[in-house]
């Protein structure tokens, strides 16, 4: 899960965003590979190349409902002078024994059925009378309703070239081809391919298990009544959803009151199901910032190499941050600020890359681009801080959404990007090109 412990604390050091992220990614290591059933492997990352054991399709088969015939027998066929062929039976998908089509003969064939020996092409049923002798038809009658359709004669009204409407063996992939490369994230199309080539299990890195908990005696669960001085707990829901969006299996823990011993016990209880722990709140310098109180002394002589370092970062929002490892397995823990925007921005910058690193992905970052700023007035930013403003991005332009306050949840819900203002920039005029982190 993790390698070396994070850098030792230096209370006077103001960390940059890049330094903090570098420390996290140097500590977090990809999870060990396991063998999983296909559906359990959805969202996971392959750790080995997958080679095709059998060609796909494994045999020549029909792409249409119609008749398997010889080319010479339908050459020159027309509605005025149809080719009349003897129907020798049906060829259905999955049929073990195949008919042989000789000169002057046709076999009624279904989509996906193997091309029978002797046949060279397939004539769609719409080019025939369907064996009814009443002109072109629009489809076949069900065999259960008209079993006589598999015998007698069929009139063919159009010629067909060799191998028309035939899907060739190996036309999708051939035996020995590489189906998927190591590092591929398994989505529905990839799982479909694995199933199609006969793979029931696959070796992957599992999706990380992320436990999210918020702290604060003022927090109340949604659907409960609010008392004086209370607010609803939105952070744990936002970060649990964000962890799932990043590819993790995420567990939300109900808000923990401002009590260090209770928080420490809750974290210890959650270690059994966590590859990564995320807390929100209680990391600043207040008298009730219990995350710092509960975790500052964790990882001393009992667990060498572990411990949580609480830091100040040169960023806005999200200046107070905590990071380290905890427990016998040195499980990574990221302690985020409690303000909703601060916690979400911190998640995007630090937790999401950690989750993607645990998954074994090479590219752990959100995509970034350059965009032209559209705004009513210049954006201001504190000197020496890298600011991340919520924004709406479209077609190469980005505009700020809401103010700079770290409590503005409604504005966050309208944003699909973060506008990045560098540490050495204090004002950004409309029309300026800025860096944008794309969240959607």
- The total of helices stands at 8
Give the biggest beta sheet: 7 strands, mixed
Shape: elongated
Strand content: 25-35%
Distance between the termini: 28 Å
Report the uncertain regions.
none
Count of individual beta strands: 29
User: Over the alpha carbons, how many angstroms does the gyration radius reach?
Assistant: 32 Å
Strand order of the largest sheet: 1-19-21-22-18-14-17
Q: What is shown here, in short?
A:
The protein is of the alpha/beta class. The chain has helices at residues 17-27, 71-74, 188-196, 235-246, 260-270, 290-295, 340-359, 409-414; strands at residues 14-15, 34-37, 45-46, 50-51, 61-62, 66-69, 83-91, 105-109, 121-124, 152-156, 166-167, 178-180, 201-205, 209-215, 219-220, 231-232, 249-256, 276-280, 307-313, 315-316, 320-326, 331-336, 368-373, 379-380, 386-394, 397-400, 417-421, 427-428, 433-438.
Descriptive account of the structure:
By secondary structure, the chain is an alpha/beta fold. The protein is built from 8 helices and 29 strands. The chain has helices spanning 17-27, 71-74, 188-196, 235-246, 260-270, 290-295, 340-359, 409-414; strands spanning 14-15, 34-37, 45-46, 50-51, 61-62, 66-69, 83-91, 105-109, 121-124, 152-156, 166-167, 178-180, 201-205, 209-215, 219-220, 231-232, 249-256, 276-280, 307-313, 315-316, 320-326, 331-336, 368-373, 379-380, 386-394, 397-400, 417-421, 427-428, 433-438. The strands form 8 sheets. Strands 1-19-21-22-18-14-17 form a 7-stranded mixed β-sheet, sandwiched between helices. Strands 9-6-8-7-10 form a 5-stranded mixed β-sheet. Strands 23-26-25-27-29 form a 5-stranded mixed beta barrel. Helix 1 (17-27) runs parallel beside helix 7 and helix 4 runs parallel beside helix 7. It is elongated and about 95 Å long. It starts with 13 loop residues before the first strand and ends with a strand. The model has no long low-confidence stretch (mean pLDDT 89).
């Amino acid at each position: 899960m993790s390698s070396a412990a994070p850098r030792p604390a230096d209370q006077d050091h103001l960390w940059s965003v890049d330094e903090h992220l570098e420390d996290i990614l140097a500590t977090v290591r990809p999870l060990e590979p396991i063998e999983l059933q296909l559906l359990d492997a959805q969202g996971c990352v392959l750790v080995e190349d997958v080679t095709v054991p059998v060609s796909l399709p494994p045999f020549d088969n029909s792409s249409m409902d119609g008749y398997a015939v010889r080319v010479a027998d339908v050459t020159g066929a027309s509605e005025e002078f149809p080719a009349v062929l003897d129907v020798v039976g049906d060829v259905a998908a999955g049929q073990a024994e195949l008919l042989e089509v000789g000169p002057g003969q046709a076999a009624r064939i279904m989509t996906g059925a193997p091309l029978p020996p002797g046949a060279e092409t397939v004539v769609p049923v719409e080019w025939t009378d369907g064996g009814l002798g009443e002109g072109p038809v629009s489809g076949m009658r069900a065999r259960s309703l008209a079993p006589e359709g598999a015998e007698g004669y069929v009139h063919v009204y159009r010629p067909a070239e060799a191998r028309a409407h035939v899907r060739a063996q190996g036309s999708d992939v051939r035996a020995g081809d590489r189906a998927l490369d190591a590092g591929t994230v398994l989505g529905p199309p990839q799982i479909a391919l694995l199933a199609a080539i006969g793979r029931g299990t696959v070796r992957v890195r599992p999706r990380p298990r992320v436990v999210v908990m918020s702290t604060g005696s003022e927090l109340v669960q949604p659907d409960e009544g609010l008392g004086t001085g209370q607010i609803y707990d939105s952070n744990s829901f936002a970060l649990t959803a964000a962890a799932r969006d990043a590819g993790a299996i995420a567990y939300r823990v109900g808000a923990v009151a401002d009590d260090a011993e209770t928080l420490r016990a809750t974290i210890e209880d959650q270690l059994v199901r966590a590859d990564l722990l995320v807390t929100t709140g209680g990391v600043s310098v207040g008298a009730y910032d219990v995350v710092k109180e509960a975790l500052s002394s964790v990882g001393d002589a009992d667990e060498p190499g572990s411990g949580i370092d609480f830091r100040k970062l040169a960023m806005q929002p999200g200046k107070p941050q905590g990071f380290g490892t905890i427990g016998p397995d040195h499980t990574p823990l990221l302690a985020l600020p409690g303000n909703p925007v601060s916690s979400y921005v911190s998640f995007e910058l630090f937790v999401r890359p950690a989750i993607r690193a645990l998954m074994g992905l090479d590219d752990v970052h959100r995509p970034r681009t350059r965009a032209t700023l559209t705004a009513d007035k210049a954006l201001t930013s504190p000197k020496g801080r890298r600011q991340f403003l919520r924004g709406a991005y479209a077609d190469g332009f980005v505009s700020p959404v809401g103010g700079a306050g770290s409590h503005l949840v409604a504005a966050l819900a309208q944003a699909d990007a973060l506008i990045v203002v560098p540490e050495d920039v204090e004002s950004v005029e409309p029309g300026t090109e800025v860096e944008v982190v794309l969240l959607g």
